[in-house]
Amino acid sequence: MLAPTLNPEMTLADEIEEVEPEEVRLDEAMLGYNIYVCGEYAGAIEGVPGSLEHLVVEMHWEGKGVGRTALRKFIELSRAEGCSVVTTNNDVHPAMTHILETEGFEEQTDGIGWEKEVQ
């Protein structure tokens, strides 16, 4: 999809209601990965394949499927790197808890973090 022409005060988030998987890209960054939608910065993942420390989506991108799509891409990346499990150290935001649950993650037995087998 081509990016729409924007008013200087607007961002792509103002034009997109729901992201398509092919519009979301993860690029390596200092502490993990930056999340881009159609080339526009939309958030970040802190972590390495198999271990997700933190996922944040820019406020103007929230509610558009960016977090869920980025998580799925992180899982694919982890699998491609040979990881059989993806773990998180916590989930501080209720929206993230919902995403983790619906994406098949299970709360770890010690109550700290979540995990999902990705074989």
Automatic annotation (TrEMBL):
Pfam families in the cross-refs: Acetyltransf_1 (PF00583)
Record-linked Gene3D superfamilies: 3.40.630.30
Ranges of residues in domain N-acetyltransferase: 1-119
Molecular function via GO: acyltransferase activity, transferring groups other than amino-acyl groups
Top-level division of the source organism's lineage: Archaea
InterPro entries hit by this protein: Acyl_CoA_acyltransferase (IPR016181), GNAT_dom (IPR000182)
UniProt name for this protein: N-acetyltransferase domain-containing protein
Organism from which the protein derives: Halarchaeum grantii
Organism classification: Archaea, Methanobacteriati, Methanobacteriota, Stenosarchaea group, Halobacteria
